[in-house]
Amino acid sequence: MARNVQENPDMELRTICDIDVSSLERVQQRYPNVKCTSDFQDILRDKKIEAVIVATPVSTHYDLAFSALKAGKHVLVEKPITDSVKSAVELLELSEKVKRVLMVDHTYIYSPAVQMLKNIVLSGELGTMLYYDSVRINLGLFQHDINVIWDLAPHDISIMHYLIGKTPSLVSAHGARFMNHDLEGMAYVHLTFDDGLVAHFHVNWLAPVKIRKTIIGGSKKMVVYNDVEPTEKIKVYDKGIDVTTEESIFKTLIQYRTGDIQIPHFENREALSVEIEHFADCVKNSKFPYTDGYTGLQVVRVLEAAQESIRKEGQPVSLD
Amino acid sequence: MARNVQENPDMELRTICDIDVSSLERVQQRYPNVKCTSDFQDILRDKKIEAVIVATPVSTHYDLAFSALKAGKHVLVEKPITDSVKSAVELLELSEKVKRVLMVDHTYIYSPAVQMLKNIVLSGELGTMLYYDSVRINLGLFQHDINVIWDLAPHDISIMHYLIGKTPSLVSAHGARFMNHDLEGMAYVHLTFDDGLVAHFHVNWLAPVKIRKTIIGGSKKMVVYNDVEPTEKIKVYDKGIDVTTEESIFKTLIQYRTGDIQIPHFENREALSVEIEHFADCVKNSKFPYTDGYTGLQVVRVLEAAQESIRKEGQPVSLD
Amino acid sequence: MARNVQENPDMELRTICDIDVSSLERVQQRYPNVKCTSDFQDILRDKKIEAVIVATPVSTHYDLAFSALKAGKHVLVEKPITDSVKSAVELLELSEKVKRVLMVDHTYIYSPAVQMLKNIVLSGELGTMLYYDSVRINLGLFQHDINVIWDLAPHDISIMHYLIGKTPSLVSAHGARFMNHDLEGMAYVHLTFDDGLVAHFHVNWLAPVKIRKTIIGGSKKMVVYNDVEPTEKIKVYDKGIDVTTEESIFKTLIQYRTGDIQIPHFENREALSVEIEHFADCVKNSKFPYTDGYTGLQVVRVLEAAQESIRKEGQPVSLD
Amino acid sequence: MARNVQENPDMELRTICDIDVSSLERVQQRYPNVKCTSDFQDILRDKKIEAVIVATPVSTHYDLAFSALKAGKHVLVEKPITDSVKSAVELLELSEKVKRVLMVDHTYIYSPAVQMLKNIVLSGELGTMLYYDSVRINLGLFQHDINVIWDLAPHDISIMHYLIGKTPSLVSAHGARFMNHDLEGMAYVHLTFDDGLVAHFHVNWLAPVKIRKTIIGGSKKMVVYNDVEPTEKIKVYDKGIDVTTEESIFKTLIQYRTGDIQIPHFENREALSVEIEHFADCVKNSKFPYTDGYTGLQVVRVLEAAQESIRKEGQPVSLD
């Protein structure tokens, strides 16, 4: 974050705050000309500071972002926006009241790969979107204050929300805790949408291999987005079925289509750099960010419902 | 099936029955010395026939297997054994009464890869088994009489049952139907076991890529079984975490272990050939097959519960 | 071969000859209605036999094919056509004299993947072909009578010849013999063409992994043909460079182009089946096969030159 | 380089020299406390500077390193050490005369993967090393002053030299120039050693895919080192052949061994950081670096011979 702010021509990295003193020292060495402090009030009081980036444990997001907005600062907060729907709503309302930008760091939205996915979806070439399946697993990093859903699922929920602009109606989830750890280290989340679309995320901190693979099934084409691939991240498959409903059960009702596969080229840019640029643009020109407080709230609504479903052993929870 | 029976030195391929006449003609050409008939009674009446293999649509399994057992034949029936728990129980009871072998064609159990998995699990090197996650997806083949769960999940349920010898207590499932097809073409099945083990299967007929990947998470080691790989199907990862529970939330509680990866070698034999050999052995020596009627019943119990959970939008269904 | 002939509607599998008696017995069991003999004269004398397929060790190709042609039979002989340029020329001349089809079993030419490669090359989309690089390695099967060049390089030489229709002017090769085996088990072959095109083959019987990968570099696009991939065998890369020659050495002279990657779809058919069909067509309609005796001769010319270059420690050998 | 020097606790980044003024300005911004100059004499005259790192075009290596050594500085020079054997010998002799460290930046030697390879070779588990085959290809970066051999082959030559400590006796090479570019953009280099070992490198700036794969064939085991893999870079295959020489040509002479595959774990550290640490250690404690001037000279001897072989259309050039 600090590096990307510093490299952005429209921003000036002015103050870095960290309550871990040794970490603050390392930062000071790297950025000798930046003020380093362990007192957040130093930031709030500094009239020259227009915007604050909150990159702290989730449980502190609400307090820090709230006081920054109160002090008239624009705020970019790491995902998830807060640890509850209630506090997310409050932040959102405050940001509207004080007319400041409230942006959530759903970084993937600013990656060239997800931008390309968005283009593909917008082009209509997939037909009707039928399903969205994502596997996001690896070994580590177990968090201390949030379980794996709150840590990893925001990526998938925000990408989905960005791609289709809809909110699910039902959320089910299953989680597993490992080896006396008191937080779920693995979970499956299943979303149902009113129009029949389904989405499913497998998030896991205790997997032997790193997988970051999303499959989007459409009625015309299908997409595989493999974020672990260094260059060929997105493949568009001209594949599908045509269903002809005849009465006789012995007639072939399903026809399979298989055509070429396309791997679209896009420039590889650091997503965080794009995001910081977008934040600067929103602040300067009073725009709403792509990942605004409202998006952040939608993500937390799904997370909270998933949490509740886990408690109920997988019973679906309504989002209305 | 026919080829493997013919190649087995302990068996003689005597009669092939098919109600599709053109298919029967092709078979006759390939096996000129084998009797071909479209009347199943020809098989039942032939005293010299000791064993019958039922490889027909699922809805016909019960009737054909039942009458074959009644006629004193040993029976090998394709998976799933029948289309309901009730009929599976009846078949099982009949087989016990007439003292004939009732075996289910859960082919994977006889594959060298699953045999190797069984050895790894038995060796105890994985520690406690924490989760079993399987993805079994590709484009096609949509079935006319059963949905994707009844078609593909029997593989995973039977492998799991073989590896751990336990039956789940809770089953949840979500399914999706595509493009006016009246059967689920995609589904997620989640199993919970009394000891905390969880299992999850993604089965899908409408996926752009073929994936056959199972991850088994253990407390000591983890395994990835990739059946699409031609030679390096199984990888054993010496990876995991050690959890030390300290009170302070800011101390590192989790330590990660990462060691070598082992790819065990095993001879590649056709699973069906091993299975037929096992069937012959069971018939000759009055043994219970690894995949006997009881195993087949356990599989159908899970399938039926998953079906019920889908109807209830994912609500967990108890297996007791 | 036998199976493919039997399945071809335009052919009748009449006689199989093998001097290995136990092998002949197995064959007889599989094809009960086919005459099996260990006397090749039985084939030559049989007036009803129109065509002979020679699938024997290379050193016997010449004698068997020669006598079959002499007896008025059409001949399909496994690759390489013979073990010397001299004998290949003689076969070719005899086939012209007796007006019989002489076809060489360069199977790859009939594979859908190589057919697709041919289409891509013909379309001109690659621009000028700059290089052809092939790696064809795995563990086994060491041959007893020919080294790895004579065993594996015919695939690459015939594919190249089919794709570009040109013969190289210079051949260099390096080989290595392993562990007292008296034949090269690994070799590198380098071809130079008059127009600047270069080709290079790495063939190896003692490699830990199976690789079948060909890269074709063109001035406009490039192709990777990975025959080990089950479905996505061919990838067309819209990649390359543009060279602008400026005087100053500090100016950027090279510009890189990177566009989409295309994976063309094609139906997967067994190459041997296509080949047998083509052979039948050539016999019936007096056509020249794609892989005729002349093609077979060109392949052996390169093989012989490569062999000579190995003897001379890699010195280039002229093909004129 | 600059970053790694700055992060090394035993070194102080004192002066950066660049004749490109705009580049110098960017560097000054990043390292505000470091002196930036476009006059190399500033470095030579500064008595407090003990060591100089030369990271410039190859044609300037000799002059800059020579004058630095003359001025009593220790020198680390990018690979290849110089552009000719003659100048490499002179540098080496000067470094011995002035008793200063002369180290060449063959970075791979300091990578954890190559260190692991060295351990595997030293352990003897591979048996006799039979061949070393490397493919090092991708699109770009075409150099202005050196061809692809001088750019990429130093990696393979230095790794080989490090692993086996021997110098080849014969060098052959083929090169191709593309699209009016006057330097080879693709080349094959073949090395023969007195004991029968062969090595082969395919280096290419105009390839559609990035490949960094080395296969080492041993009489007992074989290794694949795939540097593009993020984590599983090295695989050790317990594979090979046993040759039993019997007279009869129809008896099976070769037996194949296939055992487990091992993927050894090692920590991932930045090679350049290890290298800089080693340079500091050599300077402080008057040690010879692993990649000293002598190693650098051996690399250039092979490069020069390869260049000569290309001129002679692949004729082998003796290194004696």
Helices and strands in order:
Four copies of one chain form a homotetramer.
Chain A: H1 2-7, E1 15-17, H2 21-30, E2 35-37, H3 40-45, E3 51-54, H4 61-70, E4 74-78, H5 85-98, E5 102-105, H6 112-123, E6 129-139, H7 148-164, E7 170-177, E8 184-192, E9 198-204, E10 206-218, E11 222-226, E12 234-243, E13 254-263, H8 271-285, H9 293-311, E14 317-318
Parallel strand pairs in A: 1-2, 3-4, 4-5, 6-9
Antiparallel strand pairs in A: 6-10, 7-8, 7-14, 8-9, 10-11, 11-12, 12-13
Description:
- 4 copies of one chain form a homotetramer.
- With 320 residues, chain A is of the alpha/beta class.
- Chain A folds into 2 domains: 128 residues, 3-Layer(aba) Sandwich (Rossmann fold); 134 residues, 2-Layer Sandwich (Dihydrodipicolinate Reductase, domain 2).
- Helix content of chain A is 34%, strand content 29%.
- Chain A has 9 helices and 14 strands.
- In chain A, helix 4 packs parallel to helix 5 and helix 6 packs across helix 7.
- The model of chain A has no long low-confidence stretch (mean pLDDT 95).
- Chains in contact: A-B, A-C, A-D, B-C, B-D, C-D.
- The interface between A and B is large, with 55 and 55 residues.
Provide a compact summary of the structure.
By secondary structure, the first copy, chain A, is α/β, with parallel strands linked by helices. Helices cover 34% and strands 29% of the residues of chain A. Chain A has 2 domains: 2-107 and 272-293, 3-Layer(aba) Sandwich (Rossmann fold), CATH 3.40.50.720; 109-218 and 265-270 and 301-318, 2-Layer Sandwich (Dihydrodipicolinate Reductase, domain 2), CATH 3.30.360.10.
